[in-house]
Specification:
387 residues, Rossmann fold, five-stranded parallel beta sheet, 16 helices, binds adenosine-5'-triphosphate, binds magnesium ion
Length: 387
C-alpha cells in the first residue's frame, strides 16, 4: 500500500525510485560502499530496504539516531558498541545462519548470555579490532551461504561524535578483508555526513577509498500528483482534483508528507467524517515544530537561533547573509555579529532546517510542514515572546 506510513519493504508499495534502487543493487553486487542521502522523510530507509531485500542480502541495520543526544558533542565508545551489539543480536535472531556469531560475542564479552544492559561494564574493554573481528566472522558466514552482508549505518554523522574508536582503520580493515560486505551510510544531515565521510575517506589509512553517493530528491509536482492518485485508487477512495492540487502545492514533493496526507485523508473518508486538509497538514507541522524546538533549545543561544529563523520569514522565506544579520539584529534589538549569524545559518543548514542554494542565499523549505513548523518552533522560544 502506497499510503502505509511505515518505511516500505517491497517495491510494490514504493512509488518510482526505480533508478535509485537499481543503483543501490548494482553497487551492492559490485561490493561498492554507498551513501544514501536526502532530507528527512524523503524515503532513504524505504529505498535501501527494498534494494537490500531484492538482492537477498543479510541486513544489519544500525540506527545511530538511537544514541543521538542533541545536547552532547561526544559519546564514549561503549554507547556505540552497546548499540552495535544489540543490532547484531537482532540480526542473529532473524538469520539463523548467524548463530555462530552469538557465541563469538559472548566469548569476547566473557559472558554466557548477551544482554547489553548487564554487560555495560565490559563494553568499555571492547576494541576496534574486536568489532572488525565480529564483522569478518559475519562476512565469512555470509560468504559460505552465498550471500552478501549489508551493514546500514543510519544517521551516519553521529559516528564523528564517538570517542575512542578509530573508524578509518575499522572501515579500512572491513573494506579490505570483507569482500562480501557492503556498508551503506544513510542520513538526513547531508552536509554533516559528507564531512564525516570525507574524514573517513581521506584519513589514512582509508585514503582514496570510494563511497558512491546516491541522493534522493523530492518528487516533481506531476509525480506527487500521480502518487496521490494511485494511492487513493488503491484505497478505493474518490477524491476531488482540487484536493490533490492543494496537497501537491502545500507538501512540495516530500514523500513522507504525501504518505501521511494520503493515509489520514483515507482514514477520515473511511470513517465517514469529512477529511480536513488543514488539520492533516497541521499534524505534519507539529512534527517538525517539536523536532525544531528540541534542536533550538539544545543550542547555546536559542534566542539568536529563533531570531535568525524569524528574520528569514520576515524576508519572505529567503535572504542573503547581510540582510539576515540586519533583520535578526532588529528583532533582538542588539547587534548580532555577522560571523555569529553565519555560524547559526550554517548550523541550521547542516541540520536540514533551512537550505543554502547555489545563489548563496538561505531559504526556508518550501513545503508547509517544514516551513511553518520551524517558524512556530522559533516563536516557542520563551525569550522570544517579546518579538
Ligand atoms: N517512494 C515512495 N513511495 C511510497 N512511500 C514512500 C516513498 N518514499 C517514502 N515513502 C514513505 O514516506 C515516509 C518516509 O519514508 P522513509 O522512512 O523511508 O524516509 P527516510 O528518508 O528514511 O526518513 P527519515 O529521515 O525520517 O529516516 C514513510 O511513510 C514511507 O512509507
Ligand atoms: Mg530513515
Amino acid at each position: 500500500m502506497l499510503f502505509n506510513t511505515r518505511p516500505k519493504e517491497d517495491r510494490k508499495d514504493l512509488y518510482d525510485r526505480e533508478k535509485e534502487i537499481e543503483m543501490i543493487k548494482d553497487s551492492i553486487a559490485r561490493g561498492e560502499w554507498i551513501a544514501v542521502l536526502g532530507m528527512r522523510r524523503i524515503g532513504k530507509t524505504s529505498v535501501v530496504n527494498v534494494a537490500v531485500k531484492e538482492i537477498g542480502a543479510i541486513k544489519v541495520s544500525i540506527n545511530l539516531m538511537r544514541i543521538h543526544d542533541s545536547r552532547k558533542k561526544q559519546y564514549p565508545k561503549h554507547v556505540l558498541i552497546s548499540l552495535l551489539i544489540e543490532e547484531i543480536n537482532e540480526a542473529i535472531k532473524n538469520y539463523t545462519i548467524l548463530g555462530k556469531v552469538a557465541k563469538l560475542l559472548s566469548n569476547i564479552l566473557g559472558v554466557e548470555e548477551i544482554q547489553t544492559n548487564k554487560v555495560r561494564a565490559k563494553l568499555t574493554k571492547i576494541r576496534g579490532t574486536d568489532i572488525t573481528y565480529i564483522i569478518r566472522e559475519m562476512d565469512s558466514i555470509a560468504r559460505d551461504n552465498k550471500k552478501q552482508l549489508v551493514i546500514i549505518l543510519d544517521e551516519a554523522q553521529e559516528l564523528a561524535k564517538v570517542n575512542g574508536l578509530d573508524f578509518p582503520s575499522i572501515f579500512h580493515d572491513v573494506y579490505d578483508n570483507c569482500k562480501n560486505t557492503v556498508i551503506i551510510f544513510t542520513g538526513s544531515m547531508v552536509k554533516l555526513i559528507e564531512k564525516t565521510l570525507k574524514n573517513i575517506e581521506y584519513t589514512e589509512p582509508f585514503f582514496g577509498r570510494y563511497i558512491r553517493k546516491i541522493t534522493l530528491g523530492r518528487f516533481l509536482p506531476e509525480q506527487s500528483r500521480e502518487f496521490l492518485e494511485k494511492g487513493f485508487e488503491e484505497e478505493g477512495i474518490k477524491v476531488d482534483e482540487s484536493v490533490i492540487d492543494e496537497a501537491v502545492k502545500r507538501l512540495d514533493g516530500i514523500p513522507g508528507w504525501l504518505t501521511l496526507f494520503g493515509s489520514e485523508y483515507t482514514f477520515s473518508a473511511k470513517m465517514g467524517t469529512k477529511p480536513r486538509i488543514d488539520e492533516i497538514i497541521e499534524k505534519a507541522i507539529n512534527e517538525v515544530r517539536n523536532e525544531a524546538r528540541n534542536f533550538i533549545f539544545s543550542t547555546q543561544s536559542p534566542l539568536r537561533y529563533s531570531a535568525v529563523i524569524l528574520a528569514l520569514d520576515r524576508l519572505g522565506g529567503k535572504g542573503e547573509l547581510h540582510e539576515i544579520v540586519k533583520v535578526s539584529s532588529t528583532i533582538l534589538n542588539e547587534n548580532i555579529p555577522e560571523p555569529r549569524v553565519y555560524e547559526i545559518l550554517n548550523r541550521l543548514v547542516e541540520f536540514d532546517f533551512i537550505e543554502r542554494r547555489e545563489d548563496n542565499e538561505y531559504y526556508l523549505h518550501q513545503d508547509e510542514p517544514n516551513r511553518k513548523g520551524l517558524i512556530l518552533a522559533a516563536k516557542d522560544s520563551p525569550a522570544s515572546y517579546s518579538i
